Amino acid sequence: MLYTYRTFTDVFEKAGFEVQLLEYLDSDGIFHFSEWGIMKGKINRSKRFDERNRDGKLMYTSIILDAYKRSE
User: Fold this and answer.
1) What is the pTM of this model?
2) H-helix or E-strand spanning residue 55
């Protein structure tokens, strides 16, 4: 299964979560980034912390999202 930001969002929303996308490539290949706090957990495979992303060049990306369980 190839997960995209859309399929990941759909899976989580169907399970009752609200999703906030933090880092992802859209269907046009454009990278989107929202600030997120390291206090929630450092993600090494991210724009800020992956060593492959140096000198302002984005060489590696992952889909990063926060998912919050909806209150019933």
Assistant:
1) 0.82
2) none
- Alpha helix stretches (DSSP H) within the chain: 5-14
Between the CA of residue 40 and those of 48, 57, 61, 66, what are the distances in Å?
15, 25, 19, 10
The edge-to-edge listing of strands for the beta sheet with 17-25 is 31-33, 17-25, 64-69
Neighbours of 3 (CB within 10 A): 11
- Give 2: exposed, middle or buried? Use CB within 10 Å, 0-12, 13-18, 19+: exposed
Cα–Cα distance measured from residue 10 to residue 5, given in angstroms and rounded to the nearest whole number: 9
71 has a pLDDT exceeding 80:
no
